[in-house]
Amino acid sequence: MKILHVETGMHLYGGAQQVAYLLDGLARRKIDNILVCPPGAAIGQRFADSPVKVVEIPCSGDLDLGFVMRLRRSIAREHPQLVHLHSRRGADVLGGFAAHLAGVPAVLSRRVDNPEIGWWARWKYRRYARVICISEGIAAVLRREGVEPERIRVVRSVVDARAWIAPAPQAELRAVFGIPAGRLIAGVVAQLIERKGHKVLFQALARMAADERPFVICFGQGPQRRQLDADIARLGLAEDVRFAGFRDDLPRWMGALDLLVHPAYMEGLGVSLLQAAAAGVPIIATRVGGIPEAVRDGENGLLVAPGNVEALLAALRRLIGDAPLRARLSAGGRALIAREFSIDAMVEGNLAVYRELVEP
């Protein structure tokens, strides 16, 4: 079986990391893989010396109409049996057109739960032989918009638990990030964009007494950084929040956190939540999208309503003040990942979809 994969993201963020897990697993199963990505993309560098053939094609986004013909030519050269489109950045609609012009069936992975206009969704998703949703929450959105259920499959995102079980000592975390001794440490692992809900967390922190607040490290980068800096200064949180940027050594630090907070307004599943669970970090997150599939309320974390400052504040106080609860949620997270979120299960799930189309 020969599959051509398209991932147009430049960084090895959550979605691209899932593609990397999939390509590794497919290669171990002797599947012939071609990876199409932009020049200089991190995932292309990741597979530069591997059985996966890397083809670099420029793609500047959803309006880069030239990408259709560039990708079509690559498909014609490589003769895959199937095209798997992984990224939204120019790869979904434009990639679907390219596969159609080349006469090759296309599969699309959908990783976000944002709604689309019904007529557009019905037209768009007919371009794909299958749509693989990374959570039941995303699949439910598509069904509500009128996408045919027989076109939809659910294969959850996963995490390589081995990378998250040996963190640095917390004393090292405190030294590197300048965190005072004695304070609990909360992390946020998310792009600095509005829908991740950083502002809700900062408003909750501002309502806490100075001696009860956790110290918060925000891992990630994004266009809201300047605005969030201003919010922190206005709320008097300059000594309580640290922005750490994008870190490729995140596995060293995740397990040294006392808790992870993810106050998102929308989320397909939340790979950072799976990473935290694998590291044994208790989680506070919102009850939106696919998050309840990654965070089970009372099992590995606490769920609150999105945008509800009071509910988030109550959850923070509860978790901060209850060490036995944190320990119970920590153990529950590791058990959940081992039980339901293995890489092999994800690879086999995608492979089953391929076989529906290639080996009917």
TrEMBL record:
GO molecular function, one term: glycosyltransferase activity
One Pfam family in the UniProt entry: Glycos_transf_1
Glycosyl transferase family domain segment(s): 171-334
Keyword list, A-Z: Transferase
Domain of life: Bacteria
The keyword Transferase appears for this protein: yes
Location of the Glycosyltransferase subfamily 4-like N-terminal domain: 14-161
InterPro entries linked to this entry: Glyco_trans_1 (IPR001296), Glyco_trans_4-like_N (IPR028098)
GO BP terms in the entry: carbohydrate derivative metabolic process
PANTHER family, per the entry: GLYCOSYLTRANSFERASE
Protein name stated in the entry: Glycosyltransferase involved in cell wall bisynthesis
Lineage, broadest ranks: Bacteria, Pseudomonadati, Pseudomonadota, Gammaproteobacteria, Nevskiales
